[in-house]
Amino acid sequence: MFKLMLMLSSLILILMMLVAVAFITLLERKILGYMQIRLGPNKASIMGISQPLSDALKLYSKEMVKPFNSNFTSYFFSPSVSLILSLMIWFSLPIFKPILLMKMGLLMFFSILGLGVYPILMAGWSSNSNFSLIGGMRALAQTISYEVSLIFIILSNMILNNSMNFFKLMEVQKMFVYIFFMFNFLLWMISCTAELNRTPFDFAEGESELVSGFNTEYSSGTFAMIFMAEYMMILFFSSFSTIMFFGFYMSELKYFITVMLFIFFFVWMRATLPRYRYDLLMNFSWKIVLPSSTLNLFFFIFLNLTSK
Question: Is residue 256 part of a domain?
Fold first, then answer.
């Protein structure tokens, strides 16, 4: 019975995430449209509500183009691996508390997050295109650089409760005033934006210089999988940020409101800021974000030691 409940919970979670990702794309296109004084998608159904369904039908019914010199096995499977990892990382969150609760959810989060760059690198390399390869290498360097800072920021919060359990982390957040984590939160949002390859740090898909970056040679269903994995990670990091910095339970209305505000923030960044320069991005990571997150980690370690 327990195994059946676990399977049903997992299936419900996967279906919910796939539906949510579809409508996040519609939300982004609508917000960008109104920010640019236009309507956005409005032809499919009423006010463009069924636009995600139309996009899915179009993408998955198109012919898939196979590059002549590509390494087809890696080229074909890397989008699937990327989507699977984006789905798996959700199980680290305390969603179905009585059935599916990991005592070391943060450790699983670290593990899957570290694997996320491999499908992007495989996609860029196996396409056998210079643009794709450069996009994949950029993504590798950028992701590794900012993941170090991300982990240090999470460790700073984790040290206060000496646990990798999300529920204990949420309880600690309710004990402290949010302003206490403001510097941590600022570093987190910068690192998240770079980790998600969002504007102004979208160098893995730099359209102005790399056509479409690591996914230049992808079309049809494989491109849709890469697209879904990217937006699923945006939704995940919005949820993760809400839990880690605000301590809201996933059954609360304010949790959903905060998640939507985070998603709006990422879209707002895309509509407002121009693309940064790649060498400045790497300098910013190693010379500003990483030293700041390291000092912040030492501060929390000192705080933890002095409180005992």
Answer: yes
pTM: predicted TM-score of the whole model, two decimal places = 0.90
Distance of alpha carbon 141 from alpha carbon 129, whole angstroms: 18
13 within a domain of the structure (yes/no): no
In a domain, 270, yes or no: yes
pLDDT tens digits for the chain (308 residues)? 666 776 777 787 788 888 888 889 888 999 999 898 888 888 888 888 888 888 888 888 888 777 777 787 888 888 888 888 988 888 888 775 655 567 777 888 888 888 888 888 888 888 888 888 888 888 888 888 888 888 888 888 788 777 777 777 777 666 665 556 788 888 889 888 888 888 788 776 766 666 777 888 888 888 888 888 888 999 999 988 888 888 777 777 888 899 999 999 999 988 888 888 888 888 988 899 999 999 988 888 887 777 66
Q: How far apart are CA 60 and CA 150, in angstroms?
A: 35
Position 109 in a domain: yes
Which of 303, 235, 212 has the alpha carbon at shortest distance from 90?
235
At residue 230, φ and ψ (nearest 5 deg) are -65, -45
Domain range enclosing 137: 65-307
Alpha-carbon distance 48 to 56, whole Å? 14
